[in-house]
Amino acid sequence: DGGITQSPKYLFRKEGQNVTLSCEQNLNHDAMYWYRQDPGQGLRLIYYSQIVNDFQKGDIAEGYSVSREKKESFPLTVTSAQKNPTAFYLCASSRLLTGAGEQFFGPGTRLTVL
Amino acid sequence: QKEVEQNSGPLSVPEGAIASLNCTYSDRGSQSFFWYRQYSGKSPELIMSIYSNGDKEDGRFTAQLNKASQYVSLLIRDSQPSDSATYLCAVIGDSNYQLIWGAGTKLIIKP
User: Fold this and answer.
1) CA distances (Å), A85 to each of A102, A112, B91, in order?
2) How far is the C-alpha of A101 from the C-alpha of B31, rounded, in Å?
3) In the predicted model, what is the mean pLDDT of residues B65-83?
4) Taking CB atoms and an 8 Å limit, are B43 and A108 in contact across chains?
5) With b meaning 16 or more CB within 10 Å and e meaning fewer, what string describes B10-38?
């Protein structure tokens, strides 16, 4: 089955730790995205990538980093510089960047800072 | 700042009735409009897209777009308890490919 996988489903981070969230897709999509969702708020774009080895900052990139070494994979690192990382993190992909409205989402990772 | 506004709800609708969800957007140049459904604790799922003025129907769902008034709506006919979810409106402007998201409307269908 084609789709997007994210791991882990739940993640707990201690103060000062960096953590990496995994996102893998087998849809052969070119574009991939990372969003953050907080209760009662819309999705906010962290980073996006339309091709391998290239990515762009979204609206809230500070404290986060990404890589795109393979078309299928787009991991997100939440660094210790992100002061309020507790949120629901969603990875998505679309066939092309120009098709960004038709995004497929992974199941999400819920990150909690201890 | 480009914005997409939705009433947060909850919107409570009896089973079998029509649920009407509304969304307004600030960027007059917006070209593409989308409705996503998100069940509690789950990720969003695309249910409708609309690109031109008027109505677009897909099963029990109808999306309506009025660019002059800058609003887009979603009608759900014969509402079912399984339709209870948060509905997110998202818009793409004509200057980039980023989706601008509303905060969502929580819909509750009462049996």
Assistant:
1) 27, 7, 26
2) 11
3) 97
4) yes
5) ebebeeeeebebbbbbebeebebbbbbbb
Whether the bond into B44 is cis, omega within 30 of 0: no
User: What chain A residue is nearest to B102 in terms of C-alpha separation?
Assistant: A42
Residue holding tokens 């897709």? A25
Residues of B with CB under 8 A from a CB of A: 4, 8, 32-34, 42-46, 49, 88, 90, 92, 97-99, 101-104
Categorize the per-residue pLDDT at B45 as very low, low, confident or very high, splitting at 50, 70 and 90: very high
Cβ-based neighbour number of residue A57 at 10 Å: 13
Residue A42 to residue A12: CA distance in whole angstroms: 23
For tokens 């009025």, the residue is B66
* pLDDT tens-digit readout, A61-100: 999 999 999 999 999 999 988 889 999 999 999 988 777 7
Range B84-110 average pLDDT: 89
Q: Between the CA of residue B26 and those of A67, B67, B69, B92, B101, what are the distances in Å?
A: 33, 11, 10, 11, 12
Both structure tokens of A79? 């660094």
Top residue of A43, A44, A56 to mutate, by most chain B CBs within 10 Å, is: A43
A98 touches chain B (CB under 8 A): yes
Q: Do B98 and A58 touch (CB under 8 A)?
A: yes
- Cβ–Cβ of A48/B98 closer than 8 Å? yes
